[in-house]
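Pasting as-is:
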Amino acid sequence: MDDNMFISHTALRTLDLQKNKLRHLPRGLPPGLEILHVGHNRIHSLQESSLVGLKKLRILHLQNNQISTLRASTLSLLENLESLYLDVNKIKSIHGAPRLPTLNILSMGSNSISSIPSAFFSSMHLLKILDLSSNHLTKIPHGLPQSLIHLNLDRNQIQSLRNRDMYQMHNLVTQGVSFNKLISVDWSLRLPSLSVCELAGNKLRELPGSLGSKLENLDCRQNNIQEVTYQQLAGMNQLKHLFLENNTIRNFEAGAFRNCMQLSNLALEQNLLSAIPNGLPETLVRLDLKENNIDTIHERELRPLRKLQVLNLRNNKLSSLPALKLLPKLKVHFWMETRGSVAVNCLR
Protein backbone atom coordinates (compact mmCIF):
# COMPACT_ATOMS: atom_id res chain seq x y z
CA MET A 1 0.00 0.00 0.00
CA ASP A 2 1.20 3.49 -0.81
CA ASP A 3 1.93 5.66 2.19
CA ASN A 4 -0.67 8.32 3.02
CA MET A 5 -3.32 6.81 0.75
CA PHE A 6 -5.90 7.20 3.55
CA ILE A 7 -4.70 10.52 4.94
CA SER A 8 -7.35 12.61 3.16
CA HIS A 9 -10.21 10.47 4.53
CA THR A 10 -10.64 12.58 7.64
CA ALA A 11 -14.06 11.08 8.48
CA LEU A 12 -12.75 7.50 8.48
CA ARG A 13 -13.28 5.83 11.86
CA THR A 14 -12.95 2.09 11.10
CA LEU A 15 -10.48 0.47 8.71
CA ASP A 16 -10.48 -3.29 8.03
CA LEU A 17 -7.42 -4.71 6.23
CA GLN A 18 -7.43 -8.20 7.73
CA LYS A 19 -6.68 -11.37 5.74
CA ASN A 20 -4.29 -9.80 3.26
CA LYS A 21 -0.52 -10.11 2.77
CA LEU A 22 0.64 -6.88 4.35
CA ARG A 23 4.19 -6.95 5.72
CA HIS A 24 3.89 -3.72 7.71
CA LEU A 25 1.23 -1.29 8.85
CA PRO A 26 0.43 1.38 6.27
CA ARG A 27 1.82 4.82 7.11
CA GLY A 28 -0.16 8.01 7.11
CA LEU A 29 -3.41 6.70 8.52
CA PRO A 30 -5.99 9.43 9.30
CA PRO A 31 -5.70 10.82 12.85
CA GLY A 32 -9.42 10.31 13.52
CA LEU A 33 -9.20 6.52 13.14
CA GLU A 34 -10.71 4.65 16.11
CA ILE A 35 -10.74 0.97 15.06
CA LEU A 36 -8.06 -0.76 12.99
CA HIS A 37 -8.21 -4.41 11.89
CA VAL A 38 -4.93 -5.73 10.45
CA GLY A 39 -5.07 -9.30 11.74
CA HIS A 40 -4.24 -12.30 9.58
CA ASN A 41 -1.49 -10.59 7.59
CA ARG A 42 2.31 -10.97 7.47
CA ILE A 43 3.29 -8.02 9.64
CA HIS A 44 6.62 -8.76 11.32
CA SER A 45 7.15 -5.59 13.38
CA LEU A 46 5.44 -2.48 14.69
CA GLN A 47 7.05 0.74 13.48
CA GLU A 48 6.56 4.03 15.30
CA SER A 49 6.18 5.82 11.97
CA SER A 50 3.00 3.81 11.29
CA LEU A 51 1.34 4.57 14.63
CA VAL A 52 2.33 8.20 15.18
CA GLY A 53 -0.65 10.51 15.24
CA LEU A 54 -3.24 7.80 16.00
CA LYS A 55 -4.24 9.34 19.32
CA LYS A 56 -7.90 8.45 18.90
CA LEU A 57 -7.34 4.78 18.16
CA ARG A 58 -9.34 2.68 20.63
CA ILE A 59 -9.20 -0.87 19.21
CA LEU A 60 -6.27 -2.49 17.43
CA HIS A 61 -6.43 -6.04 16.04
CA LEU A 62 -3.01 -7.51 15.20
CA GLN A 63 -3.65 -11.22 15.76
CA ASN A 64 -2.27 -13.87 13.41
CA ASN A 65 0.78 -11.98 12.20
CA GLN A 66 4.52 -12.52 12.58
CA ILE A 67 5.42 -9.92 15.20
CA SER A 68 8.37 -11.05 17.33
CA THR A 69 9.15 -7.99 19.49
CA LEU A 70 7.10 -5.46 21.45
CA ARG A 71 8.59 -2.09 22.37
CA ALA A 72 7.04 0.19 24.96
CA SER A 73 7.91 3.36 23.05
CA THR A 74 5.89 2.18 20.05
CA LEU A 75 2.78 1.11 21.95
CA SER A 76 2.82 4.28 24.07
CA LEU A 77 1.94 6.33 21.00
CA LEU A 78 -1.58 4.90 21.29
CA GLU A 79 -2.46 6.81 24.42
CA ASN A 80 -6.23 6.20 24.18
CA LEU A 81 -6.08 2.53 23.25
CA GLU A 82 -8.73 0.40 24.99
CA SER A 83 -8.32 -3.04 23.35
CA LEU A 84 -5.17 -4.63 21.94
CA TYR A 85 -5.20 -8.08 20.32
CA LEU A 86 -1.82 -9.72 19.60
CA ASP A 87 -2.77 -13.41 19.70
CA VAL A 88 -0.98 -15.94 17.47
CA ASN A 89 2.15 -14.01 16.66
CA LYS A 90 5.80 -14.89 17.34
CA ILE A 91 6.41 -12.58 20.28
CA LYS A 92 9.47 -13.60 22.27
CA SER A 93 10.73 -10.35 23.74
CA ILE A 94 9.00 -7.42 25.40
CA HIS A 95 10.96 -4.24 26.12
CA GLY A 96 9.96 -1.61 28.63
CA ALA A 97 6.66 -0.56 30.13
CA PRO A 98 4.22 1.06 27.70
CA ARG A 99 2.03 3.92 28.81
CA LEU A 100 -1.50 2.68 28.09
CA PRO A 101 -3.66 4.24 30.82
CA THR A 102 -7.03 3.49 29.15
CA LEU A 103 -6.36 -0.13 28.13
CA ASN A 104 -9.21 -2.50 29.13
CA ILE A 105 -8.36 -5.64 27.15
CA LEU A 106 -4.92 -7.09 26.36
CA SER A 107 -4.78 -10.41 24.54
CA MET A 108 -1.39 -12.02 23.79
CA GLY A 109 -2.23 -15.71 23.72
CA SER A 110 -0.37 -18.23 21.55
CA ASN A 111 3.00 -16.54 21.38
CA SER A 112 6.45 -17.49 22.72
CA ILE A 113 6.58 -15.19 25.74
CA SER A 114 8.72 -16.54 28.57
CA SER A 115 8.98 -13.38 30.70
CA ILE A 116 7.41 -9.95 31.02
CA PRO A 117 9.20 -6.86 32.38
CA SER A 118 8.32 -6.19 36.03
CA ALA A 119 6.90 -2.73 35.29
CA PHE A 120 5.07 -3.70 32.11
CA PHE A 121 1.58 -3.28 33.63
CA SER A 122 2.42 -0.23 35.78
CA SER A 123 0.28 2.25 33.78
CA MET A 124 -2.60 -0.13 33.01
CA HIS A 125 -4.86 0.91 35.87
CA LEU A 126 -8.05 0.09 33.94
CA LEU A 127 -7.03 -3.32 32.57
CA LYS A 128 -9.84 -5.81 33.13
CA ILE A 129 -9.12 -8.72 30.75
CA LEU A 130 -5.66 -10.25 30.27
CA ASP A 131 -5.03 -13.32 28.12
CA LEU A 132 -1.51 -14.80 28.19
CA SER A 133 -2.50 -18.38 27.44
CA SER A 134 -0.33 -20.75 25.39
CA ASN A 135 2.99 -19.06 26.07
CA HIS A 136 6.18 -20.14 27.90
CA LEU A 137 5.68 -18.39 31.24
CA THR A 138 7.13 -20.19 34.26
CA LYS A 139 5.59 -17.92 36.91
CA ILE A 140 2.81 -15.41 37.43
CA PRO A 141 3.85 -12.09 35.82
CA HIS A 142 4.93 -9.45 38.32
CA GLY A 143 2.82 -6.40 39.04
CA LEU A 144 -0.50 -7.49 37.61
CA PRO A 145 -2.97 -4.61 37.94
CA GLN A 146 -5.50 -4.62 40.75
CA SER A 147 -8.25 -3.83 38.22
CA LEU A 148 -8.09 -7.29 36.58
CA ILE A 149 -11.38 -9.20 36.41
CA HIS A 150 -10.48 -12.03 33.99
CA LEU A 151 -7.02 -13.64 33.82
CA ASN A 152 -6.15 -16.48 31.44
CA LEU A 153 -2.78 -18.20 31.93
CA ASP A 154 -3.74 -21.62 30.55
CA ARG A 155 -1.13 -23.74 28.78
CA ASN A 156 2.05 -22.22 30.17
CA GLN A 157 4.70 -23.75 32.45
CA ILE A 158 3.75 -22.14 35.77
CA GLN A 159 4.67 -24.25 38.81
CA SER A 160 3.06 -22.40 41.72
CA LEU A 161 0.45 -19.83 42.66
CA ARG A 162 1.94 -17.66 45.38
CA ASN A 163 0.18 -15.13 47.55
CA ARG A 164 2.95 -12.56 47.03
CA ASP A 165 2.29 -12.59 43.28
CA MET A 166 -1.50 -12.25 43.50
CA TYR A 167 -2.42 -10.66 46.84
CA GLN A 168 -3.43 -7.36 45.19
CA MET A 169 -5.98 -8.92 42.82
CA HIS A 170 -9.09 -8.10 44.85
CA ASN A 171 -11.35 -7.76 41.78
CA LEU A 172 -10.42 -10.99 39.99
CA VAL A 173 -13.55 -12.98 39.10
CA THR A 174 -12.26 -15.69 36.74
CA GLN A 175 -8.81 -17.26 36.69
CA GLY A 176 -7.49 -19.91 34.31
CA VAL A 177 -4.22 -21.70 35.05
CA SER A 178 -5.11 -25.03 33.45
CA PHE A 179 -2.56 -27.28 31.76
CA ASN A 180 0.51 -25.81 33.38
CA LYS A 181 2.95 -27.54 35.76
CA LEU A 182 1.36 -26.48 39.04
CA ILE A 183 2.50 -28.45 42.04
CA SER A 184 1.36 -26.03 44.76
CA VAL A 185 -1.08 -23.27 45.60
CA ASP A 186 -0.38 -21.11 48.65
CA TRP A 187 -2.83 -21.81 51.46
CA SER A 188 -2.62 -18.12 52.33
CA LEU A 189 -3.83 -17.06 48.89
CA ARG A 190 -7.18 -15.27 49.15
CA LEU A 191 -8.98 -13.76 46.16
CA PRO A 192 -12.13 -12.22 47.62
CA SER A 193 -14.04 -11.77 44.33
CA LEU A 194 -13.00 -15.03 42.66
CA SER A 195 -15.97 -16.97 41.26
CA VAL A 196 -14.37 -19.32 38.69
CA CYS A 197 -10.99 -21.05 39.13
CA GLU A 198 -9.71 -23.46 36.48
CA LEU A 199 -6.69 -25.58 37.49
CA ALA A 200 -7.17 -28.66 35.29
CA GLY A 201 -4.28 -30.62 33.84
CA ASN A 202 -1.63 -29.85 36.44
CA LYS A 203 0.31 -31.81 39.07
CA LEU A 204 -1.55 -30.81 42.22
CA ARG A 205 -1.53 -33.44 44.98
CA GLU A 206 -4.21 -31.77 47.06
CA LEU A 207 -7.22 -29.59 46.52
CA PRO A 208 -6.32 -25.91 46.97
CA GLY A 209 -7.56 -24.41 50.22
CA SER A 210 -10.11 -21.64 50.46
CA LEU A 211 -9.22 -19.47 47.47
CA GLY A 212 -12.12 -17.15 48.20
CA SER A 213 -15.49 -17.12 49.90
CA LYS A 214 -17.29 -16.32 46.61
CA LEU A 215 -15.89 -19.27 44.65
CA GLU A 216 -18.67 -21.02 42.71
CA ASN A 217 -16.80 -23.11 40.12
CA LEU A 218 -13.59 -25.05 40.83
CA ASP A 219 -12.05 -27.25 38.14
CA CYS A 220 -9.22 -29.53 39.34
CA ARG A 221 -9.63 -32.42 36.91
CA GLN A 222 -6.56 -34.24 35.58
CA ASN A 223 -4.30 -33.70 38.58
CA ASN A 224 -2.74 -36.05 41.16
CA ILE A 225 -5.19 -35.45 44.01
CA GLN A 226 -5.53 -38.52 46.27
CA GLU A 227 -7.76 -37.33 49.11
CA VAL A 228 -10.26 -34.57 49.78
CA THR A 229 -10.52 -33.18 53.32
CA TYR A 230 -12.84 -30.92 55.27
CA GLN A 231 -10.10 -28.34 55.72
CA GLN A 232 -9.71 -27.97 51.95
CA LEU A 233 -13.41 -27.31 51.40
CA ALA A 234 -14.25 -25.55 54.64
CA GLY A 235 -14.26 -22.00 53.27
CA MET A 236 -16.08 -22.79 50.03
CA ASN A 237 -19.65 -22.31 51.18
CA GLN A 238 -20.73 -20.78 47.85
CA LEU A 239 -19.30 -23.60 45.72
CA LYS A 240 -21.77 -24.89 43.10
CA HIS A 241 -19.63 -26.85 40.63
CA LEU A 242 -16.67 -29.05 41.61
CA PHE A 243 -14.81 -31.00 38.91
CA LEU A 244 -12.40 -33.66 40.19
CA GLU A 245 -12.46 -36.24 37.41
CA ASN A 246 -9.26 -37.99 36.27
CA ASN A 247 -7.44 -37.88 39.59
CA THR A 248 -6.41 -40.70 41.92
CA ILE A 249 -8.88 -39.98 44.72
CA ARG A 250 -9.44 -42.92 47.06
CA ASN A 251 -10.97 -41.21 50.04
CA PHE A 252 -13.11 -38.32 51.20
CA GLU A 253 -12.67 -37.32 54.81
CA ALA A 254 -15.85 -37.69 56.87
CA GLY A 255 -17.78 -34.44 56.73
CA ALA A 256 -15.66 -33.04 53.92
CA PHE A 257 -18.72 -31.43 52.32
CA ARG A 258 -20.19 -30.10 55.55
CA ASN A 259 -19.92 -26.45 54.50
CA CYS A 260 -20.70 -26.95 50.79
CA MET A 261 -24.40 -26.28 51.05
CA GLN A 262 -24.74 -24.79 47.55
CA LEU A 263 -23.03 -27.64 45.65
CA SER A 264 -25.17 -28.85 42.74
CA ASN A 265 -22.67 -30.51 40.37
CA LEU A 266 -19.97 -32.97 41.50
CA ALA A 267 -17.78 -34.75 38.93
CA LEU A 268 -15.75 -37.68 40.29
CA GLU A 269 -15.42 -39.96 37.28
CA GLN A 270 -12.18 -41.88 36.63
CA ASN A 271 -10.89 -41.99 40.19
CA LEU A 272 -10.21 -44.86 42.61
CA LEU A 273 -13.28 -44.64 44.84
CA SER A 274 -14.63 -47.87 46.29
CA ALA A 275 -17.79 -46.25 47.66
CA ILE A 276 -19.92 -43.16 47.28
CA PRO A 277 -18.51 -40.44 49.56
CA ASN A 278 -20.42 -40.06 52.82
CA GLY A 279 -22.14 -36.83 53.68
CA LEU A 280 -22.82 -35.53 50.19
CA PRO A 281 -24.84 -32.31 50.35
CA GLU A 282 -28.57 -32.58 49.73
CA THR A 283 -28.30 -29.76 47.15
CA LEU A 284 -26.65 -32.06 44.57
CA VAL A 285 -28.42 -32.16 41.20
CA ARG A 286 -25.77 -34.05 39.22
CA LEU A 287 -23.35 -36.71 40.49
CA ASP A 288 -20.88 -38.39 38.14
CA LEU A 289 -19.07 -41.48 39.48
CA LYS A 290 -18.25 -43.19 36.21
CA GLU A 291 -15.18 -45.47 36.05
CA ASN A 292 -14.42 -45.96 39.74
CA ASN A 293 -14.27 -49.17 41.83
CA ILE A 294 -17.68 -48.92 43.49
CA ASP A 295 -19.20 -52.36 44.13
CA THR A 296 -21.97 -51.55 46.61
CA ILE A 297 -24.26 -48.62 47.25
CA HIS A 298 -26.02 -48.28 50.60
CA GLU A 299 -29.35 -46.61 51.16
CA ARG A 300 -27.84 -44.21 53.70
CA GLU A 301 -25.59 -42.79 50.98
CA LEU A 302 -28.52 -41.96 48.69
CA ARG A 303 -31.22 -40.98 51.14
CA PRO A 304 -30.09 -37.33 51.60
CA LEU A 305 -29.90 -36.70 47.82
CA ARG A 306 -33.53 -35.70 47.39
CA LYS A 307 -32.76 -33.19 44.59
CA LEU A 308 -30.51 -35.44 42.50
CA GLN A 309 -31.58 -35.53 38.84
CA VAL A 310 -28.59 -37.17 37.09
CA LEU A 311 -26.55 -40.10 38.44
CA ASN A 312 -23.78 -41.70 36.38
CA LEU A 313 -22.39 -45.04 37.61
CA ARG A 314 -21.09 -46.48 34.37
CA ASN A 315 -18.06 -48.79 34.47
CA ASN A 316 -17.95 -49.58 38.16
CA LYS A 317 -18.21 -52.99 39.86
CA LEU A 318 -21.87 -52.98 40.76
CA SER A 319 -23.76 -56.26 40.59
CA SER A 320 -27.15 -54.73 41.38
CA LEU A 321 -28.88 -51.39 41.08
CA PRO A 322 -29.32 -49.22 44.16
CA ALA A 323 -32.79 -48.40 45.46
CA LEU A 324 -33.58 -45.62 43.03
CA LYS A 325 -36.92 -44.92 44.72
CA LEU A 326 -34.90 -43.03 47.31
CA LEU A 327 -34.16 -40.38 44.65
CA PRO A 328 -37.55 -38.79 43.86
CA LYS A 329 -36.16 -36.18 41.41
CA LEU A 330 -34.00 -38.60 39.41
CA LYS A 331 -34.43 -38.11 35.65
CA VAL A 332 -31.41 -39.93 34.21
CA HIS A 333 -29.48 -42.86 35.59
CA PHE A 334 -26.55 -44.59 33.88
CA TRP A 335 -25.32 -47.96 35.07
CA MET A 336 -23.09 -50.58 33.50
CA GLU A 337 -21.79 -53.82 34.98
CA THR A 338 -18.11 -54.06 34.08
CA ARG A 339 -18.00 -57.82 34.65
CA GLY A 340 -20.78 -58.55 32.21
CA SER A 341 -22.45 -57.06 29.22
CA VAL A 342 -25.45 -55.53 30.94
CA ALA A 343 -26.09 -51.87 30.19
CA VAL A 344 -29.08 -50.04 31.61
CA ASN A 345 -30.25 -46.48 31.02
CA CYS A 346 -33.25 -45.57 33.15
CA LEU A 347 -35.23 -42.48 32.12
CA ARG A 348 -38.29 -41.21 33.88
